[in-house]
Fold this sequence. Notes:
Blueprint: E1 7-10, E2 13-20, E3 24-28, E4 33-38, E5 40-42, E6 45-49, E7 52-56, E8 59-61, E9 72-76, H1 78-89, H2 111-118
Antiparallel strand pairs: 1-2, 2-3, 3-4, 4-9, 5-8, 6-7
Amino acid sequence: MIRLADNIRKNGFDYTLVQxxxxxxxxxxxxxxxxxxxxxxxxxxxxxxDGKSISYPEKELFPSNEDFGYTAWCCFGLHxxxxxxxxINNNNDIQEGDTxxxxxxxxxxDDAQINNLIN
Length: 119
């Protein structure tokens, strides 16, 4: 399995890994915004083009634009991003049509729970 890189460039933005686990990741966009998403996986596959086999390895995927609001969110501020990561880890992330920037109330009991995620 090829893991997501620590630094990714997509759609004209540079993203830097802040926090991840086996389920979800947070990438900083560098402007106060953070992308938080459930890590999706692409299975290994072989395609045939012009009679030649092309192998695509199993790998983790950065979210597509269509994933936002379903398995990916853009959060302003690290505290909100970490809070969303907690929601994903607790399986509370999927809310049909949740396409707005996440500015909701904290699900963390206290800041210590958030700090445990980044330490």
